[in-house]
Design goal:
The structure holds 3 protein chains of 3 kinds. Chain A is built from 11 helices and no strands. Chain A is an all-alpha fold. Chain C is an alpha/beta fold. Chain C is built from 13 helices and 16 strands. The longest helix of chain C is centred in the first third of the chain and has 20 residues. The chains are: A mainly alpha, B mainly alpha, C alpha/beta.
Chain lengths: 230, 289, 394
């Protein structure tokens, strides 16, 4: 199908664009302190959506509609998204176990110590940004195929907070923990009516609670249980 | 006179930002925490003002109640949330702070309703003064006067009183201050209390200006205030004041002149990112952590 | 230094995002349908549109109760299946799939914003489910196909009618225009600006503000400088309230003409005495001697604790229209209901009389205008020149 092959190119482009934006922000991260960086990344999102809203060629407030379907149908789309999700998880697990994953953790825990070990912290920071945002680009591309139209409204600060809640609740740095948290937080409102009505209250509350009680998140709790058992 | 009108708008905005952001920058100076949930304090302040004013019929009682209640809330945030997290990296309490803000915003919606609350009687918002062809609104004037009083007061407090000098010393050189016998815990409580009261005043005045308090009242201000304190050189009161006024003015003019290609809310962050690329340590940032 | 959680490789959270979409797709398993006629209902109960969502929900429930109390349709009761779509496109798709798959719903009222209706419309179209969008104003909604209807005027026709009203009826020529930055605001303003020259209306300047804005100092100062004959503004009541209050506080006394979504008691509450003299386009005449309207008014106020706004009325009307179409079709089979809806002629709804639908299933109906006097909505006439704001045919 024509749609399918073009769709693949479009997805590659979304990955490349995500990666490129990540690298730009990544360069900023080399220049500013970690807390400045937090504010900067929040700012980049406001800036990006604030810009897109005013650009007629990006659809402005109306968004971009008529995004062609993948041609795979609803089931096909689901399979495609699942396949990409699995590939992403596998890749994350692989990186986690590789030298690169070790270097990420080393830089994250103590940058100067990592540098004395001969780890080029700048290069790894950039790599983390580049890889991470490439996947974000992929997710955005899949989202576009899923909804078939996009508006700036869909990518607000609440989405950032939701994603952050998934990461923190799952356990910062743990692939499987985050996957479990992402699935859990998505299904929770579907299953429990209360959670649906008070979604942000629950997300915010969980975020505060997890950090306060178990800063390692789900993954940390599981690790602790295993450590105690053995 | 058009440009003067815009300047009036910008300066009154700037004063509001300054009152909101000064608490944030002081918290940062002391604890290295980006206190995002300060916006929830701001919103709480606005709600208390409107609810108490409607219940008692007195705006002054509303502001008094707000100035008394919000410091308790601010100190509780420190005591229950931040203090146990101080042993972690600064991003950890910051994430907790974001969580608290989101939680509070939803709590406001649930408790006080989506529709928001309006003042039963709000003559200030509809009172105007004309100076030549320049129009001032009473609330705008109140914003500017409050900010002037507060910043002069803060200045006197931190240069003339024992407590204030100790506070300033703790913010700029924590270890040395402690060795001089200043109780740094007390300073932290003081810090959250004062910062919260100032945010409450700002919140109450914004509520008057809009004649509406809805759950999202703190949302945009929160992230802008973050940009302001970074621009102001984290921890610097003077820098924060300058950055607030500059941002207020830039937004006031920017809304009209660059509104066609960039949202007003994005202007603060454009300035922020541009500045950080040129001066990674911020506007006045003499001190680095 | 004490231990702290290690830094997160950023990409992991992105993996979570794609997993999120995949999982939600899984919830579309098929389930058998039950006896009563089910009408699906998508409303934004949480998120930024929750204010309108709550009103729509109350109105929708009232409509269904009223229909059932009158004996139902064709001897069958209506059963309401409500989902929260948060006014978001992805949630609209999830809940649309749930309505179709899990609940076996064949008829739907979308009581939500455009982002929801736009996303849901193609899903319903493909499943052969009839959808009435109560107040979603984006053109895409009806373009999705013949199963989709809209019971509110599109943004551009409403804007065009406003130009006519300002230029011809009010005879005002020089206008400062203020747009809210979202699809509804932009589309309505485009319609206004496009039609303005026809009625000799000159747009002096155009300003825009974001949905989160409540402070309009710069725009107010600019309007003051423009010194217009009138101000035209699009917005929701929660932006319009502060906007009108601040315009008036700055000494701007010219008429303010507001778009449909100004229409709420809350607007008058926020703007206070400043609300007087504000015209609201495409509103509904609250004083109309119509038993149903007055009954709806008192009933809603009793349930909600506040007076119904335009959103509530149009949602109620959507259910009434759907029930009437089922009755006329003699069955709840979606294809028949669709044809019955398309053939609607002069159907009385709360807002007046619906002439019918055009080929694209856009409504053909006069636009009523309100003006606020002494803190009350008062009718300020009807715009009946239907050709002046004819909706697009494709």
């Amino acid at each position: 199908m024509v749609g399918t092959s073009n769709g693949l190119i479009a997805l590659l482009a979304s990955i490349a664009a995500g990666c490129a934006l990540g690298l730009v922000v990544g360069f900023a991260s080399l220049r500013v302190r970690s807390d400045f960086l937090a504010v900067t990344t929040i700012g980049v999102n406001f800036l990006f959506t604030g810009f897109v809203r005013k650009q007629a060629w990006l659809g402005g407030e109306m968004g971009i509609s008529g995004i062609p379907p993948t041609g795979l149908g609803a089931t096909g789309n689901m399979a495609m998204i699942l396949a990409f999700a699995f590939a992403t998880i596998l890749f994350s697990l692989y990186v986690d176990r590789s030298w690169m994953g070790f270097a990420f953790r080393a830089v994250g825990e103590d940058e100067s110590a990592a540098t004395t070990l001969g780890i080029d912290s700048r290069a790894y920071k950039l790599a983390a940004f580049g890889i991470g945002t490439a996947f974000a680009g992929l997710a955005g591309g899949l989202y576009a195929f899923f909804t078939q139209f996009i508006t700036a409204d869909a990518f607000d600060f609440i989405l950032s907070v939701t994603l952050m809640a998934m990461v923190v609740i799952g356990g910062i740095g743990s692939t499987l923990g985050v996957v479990v948290a992402a699935i859990g937080l998505t299904l929770l409102p579907e299953v429990i009516r209360f959670v649906n009505d008070y979604r942000l209250l629950v997300y915010g509350g969980l975020l505060v609670l997890v950090i306060r009680v178990a800063p390692g998140g789900l993954a940390g709790v599981v690790r602790k249980l295993f450590a105690r058992a053995s | 006179m058009y440009y003067v009108d815009l300047a009036v708008t910008g300066i009154s905005f700037g004063c509001m930002y300054a009152m909101m952001a000064v608490g944030l920058t002081l918290v940062y100076g002391l604890l290295r925490i980006l206190h995002v949930a300060h916006a929830a304090v701001f919103a709480l302040g606005a709600y208390v003002v409107v609810l108490v004013a409607n219940a008692t019929g007195s705006l002054i009682l509303g502001f008094l109640a707000s100035i008394l209640i919000t410091p308790l809330f601010g100190v509780a945030i420190y005591r229950l949330l931040y203090q146990p997290l101080l042993k972690y990296r600064p991003d950890v309490p910051m994430i907790a702070s974001v969580g608290l803000l989101v939680l509070m915003q939803d709590a406001f919606r649930i408790v006080f309703g989506e529709q928001g609350v309006t003042f039963r009687s709000n003559p200030l918002a509809f009172t105007t003064f004309n100076l030549g062809s320049v129009t001032f609104n009473a609330v705008q004037l109140a914003l500017v006067i409050s900010a002037v009083v507060i910043f002069v007061g803060l200045h006197v407090f931190t240069t003339r009183t024992r407590m204030g000098i100790g506070w300033r010393a703790t913010v700029s050189r924590p270890q040395i201050a402690t060795s001089f016998g200043i109780d740094s815990i007390k300073v932290r409580y003081l810090n959250f209390a004062i910062g919260s009261a100032l945010a409450a005043i700002a919140g109450g005045l914004v509520a008057l200006l809009n004649n509406l308090v809805d759950p999202s009242i703190g949302a945009v201000v929160s992230y802008k205030a973050l940009a302001i304190i970074v621009l102001g050189g984290l921890g610097s009161v003077r820098g924060t004041l300058i950055a607030s006024l500059v941002l207020g003015l830039v937004e006031a003019y920017g809304t009209v002149f660059i509104g066609d290609w960039l949202d007003r809310d994005a202007i603060a962050f454009l300035a922020l990112i541009a500045l950080l690329m040129i001066r990674p340590q911020g506007f006045t940032g003499a001190r680095t952590a | 230094m004490p231990k702290h959680p290690s830094s997160a490789p950023v990409f992991i959270k992105k993996a979570a995002l794609s997993a999120m979409f995949a999982i939600s797709l899984l919830t579309t398993a098929a389930m058998p349908a039950k006896a009563d006629i089910k009408i699906g209902f998508q409303v934004p109960l949480t998120g930024p549109a929750a204010t309108d969502g709550k009103s729509a929900q109350i109105a929708g429930q009232m409509a269904v109760d009223d229909i059932n109390a009158a004996g139902g349709v064709n001897g069958e009761k209506i059963q309401l299946v409500t989902y929260d779509d948060q006014a978001k496109s992805d949630q609209a798709i999830f809940t649309a799939n749930k309505l179709i798959g899990e609940d076996g719903v064949k008829l739907v009222v979308n009581g939500s914003y455009s982002a929801s209706g736009r996303a849901a419309a193609p899903v319903f179209q493909q499943a052969g489910v009839v959808m009435i969008s109560a107040y979603g104003v984006h053109p895409d909604i009806t373009k999705a196909g013949d199963y989709n209807f809209r019971l509110v005027h599109l943004g551009p026709p409403q804007g065009a009618a406003t130009a006519l009203y300002i230029g011809k009826t009010l005879g005002l020529k020089k206008i400062s225009a203020i747009t809210m930055d979202n699809d509804y605001g932009q589309a309505t303003m485009d319609g206004f600006v496009g039609a303005a020259p026809k009625y000799g209306v000159e747009v002096l300047n155009k300003y825009s503000y974001s949905l989160k804005d409540r402070q309009f100092g710069s725009i107010v100062a600019s309007v003051k400088r423009d010194n217009p004959d009138a101000v035209y503004a699009t917005g929701y009541f929660f932006t319009a309230g502060p906007l009108v209050a601040q315009l008036r506080a700055a000494g701007i006394t010219v008429p303010i003409i507001g778009s449909q979504a100004f229409d709420s008691e809350k607007f008058i509450e926020i703007a206070g005495p400043a609300a007087d003299g504000t015209y609201i386009m495409d509103s509904f005449d609250r004083d109309r001697k119509d038993e149903k309207l007055q009954k709806f008014f008192s009933g809603f106020k009793e349930k909600a604790g506040y007076s119904p706004e335009g959103v509530a009325a149009i949602t109620y009307s959507s259910f009434m229209l759907m029930a009437d179409a089922i009755k006329r079709a003699g069955s709840a089979e979606p294809a028949k209901v669709r044809d019955a809806l398309a053939a609607t002629k002069n159907f009385p709804i709360l807002e007046g009389t619906l002439n019918g639908f055009n080929s694209l299933h856009e409504i053909i109906m006069p636009i009523s205008v309100n003006v606020i006097k002494d803190g009350k909505f008062k009718s300020a006439g009807m715009i009946t020149d239907l050709d002046a704001f004819a909706p697009p045919e494709k």
